[in-house]
Amino acid sequence: MSQDKVLSVNNLTINFKTDNGILKAVRDISFDLIRGETLCIVGESGSGKSVTSKAIMGILANNAIIENGNIIYRGENLLEISEEEFYKIRGHKIGMIFQDPLSSLNPIVRIGKQITEAMLINSDKLKIMYNDLISDDLIRYKNTIAKRNIEIANEKKKLEAFIAEVKAKENVSAQERAADKEAIKAKKLAFKEFEKKTREKYEKKAKELKAVLEETQRQAKQQVKEYKEKVAAEHKARLAELEKKLAASSESEKTKIKEEIENEKLQYTNKLKLTKAEAQKRALAIMREVGIPDPERRFKQYPFEFSGGMRQRIVIAIALTASPEILICDEPTTALDVTIQAQILELINRIKEERNLSCIFITHDLGVVANMADRVAVMYAGKIVEYGTAEEIFYDPKHPYTWALLSSIPDVDSKEKLEAIPGTPPNMIYPPKGDAFAARSRYAMNIDYREEPPMFKVSDTHYAATWLLDPHAPKVEMPKIVSERIRISLEEDQKNE
């Protein structure tokens, strides 16, 4: 597989400001997405999977604090770009399929309108042409303003988080309370100074970029005007030619020439904007692509007239209308029964291959991704605890949490009893010291409660954050149910060869 990276997440740390304190949702995670591959992010609810995907899409909640890291797409950090540029990326370059298709669709709007809506919103081709011409300079200007505002906003969130943390203290003496007030006062003064210097730092550059943008806008308006006049002149000339031809033609030729005239009018309109007829034609083609039968009839129906599986196919169709190069699937089969799950997974796999999409597939079930993942990132308590190819994760897992997930998958071949994961994930407002999974792991050692394990290298593509991989750790065997499944699976593979 070519190592052409389309997306890189580096040291991403995301917190949320809540009434009870700061929740550590994503803690220093890194991964790459390779062109044409499927990366599956697996973990229990609350492990940080969906927060990561929302950060990539730029749809984090207002109380999110991006503490550290970056998300690089096409050489740009998505955490620093303006909303104007994100509007061009979100849905157009990076599409997303959510887990509940019914809540993703408007129940009182026909399916056809929902599929064509985005296409028709962007139907003015002259406007698109103008926006494309000014795009680079507009983005440079807006990104500069956005970076300034983001730097100030992040610093303000840190200040607010500090104040909330101080005010949440209990059983504080009068002396400590006075010291805390002084600390808050000092932090506020420091923030004001930071804000002032940050605005000064960006002011000169912003003015220069704005002047360049205004000149580009002037030139773009002229180019669009010239293009429109050229297309109109060509259309008038072609119509005049056809009208002249019609006047001189025999009765038998008139019908054909009249069709040519109507076709010329349609072509002229399509050069200036996407018509409803053209949008419907594209929508019907996509509906066929995702396996919706009789699309002409279904186009006019409402969401409640479709089954859960068909609704999910419609959501996938909507995501595909803009031909994105990255598709994020956030638990798209959770609300579906097992048979329909398999069909949707097969559909996503087929579309990925046909369109050469890169896919991030988010799920809590390792069994769901067994036949579609190229690489797997196992997340727990906001961290990636194991990362490797699908073969490495399924045939040579190293982290106790990965063992636990594999042990809980129903399997007709294994005679071993399924093992539930004891306990519950930790409260990430008060993240545990050391390995976050230690309290639920029967393999935990004393060091797991004291120090967080580093990411140990198993191979060039396989890493796991567990002290069991330390050279000084005692040798332990994976659960029998996991080793037995691996043995049976390898035997079956050998028979099929």
Key descriptive features of the protein:
single chain; 497 residues; alpha/beta; Rossmann fold; 3 domains; eight-stranded mixed β-sheet; four-stranded antiparallel β-sheet; 15 helices; globular
SSE topology:
Blueprint: E1 5-18, E2 21-34, E3 38-42, H1 49-57, E4 64-73, E5 76-77, H2 83-89, E6 94-97, H3 101-104, H4 111-121, H5 125-167, H6 174-247, H7 251-272, H8 276-289, H9 295-298, H10 308-320, E7 326-330, H11 338-355, E8 358-363, H12 366-369, E9 375-380, E10 383-389, H13 390-395, H14 400-407, E11 456-457, E12 463-464, H15 480-496
Parallel strand pairs: 3-8, 3-9, 6-7, 7-8
Antiparallel strand pairs: 1-2, 1-4, 4-5, 9-10, 10-12, 11-12
Helix pairs in contact: 4-8, 4-10, 5-6, 6-7, 8-10, 10-11
Radius of gyration from CA coordinates: 28 Å
Mean of all residue-level pLDDT scores: 87
Q: Name the CATH class of the largest domain.
A: Alpha Beta
Low-confidence stretches: none
Q: How far apart, in Å, are the first and last alpha carbons?
A: 22 Å
Order of strands across the biggest sheet? 6-7-8-3-9-10-12-11
CATH superfamily of the largest domain: P-loop containing nucleotide triphosphate hydrolases
Task: Give the CA-based shape.
Answer: globular
Oligomer: single chain
Alpha plus pi helix count: 15
CATH topology of the largest domain: Rossmann fold
Overall number of strands: 12
Provide the structure class: alpha/beta
The CATH architecture of the largest domain comes to 3-Layer(aba) Sandwich
Helix content: 40-55%
Summarize the helix and strand pattern as letters: EEEHEEHEHHHHHHHHEHEHEEHHEEH
Number of separate structural domains: 3
Main sheet properties:
8 strands, mixed
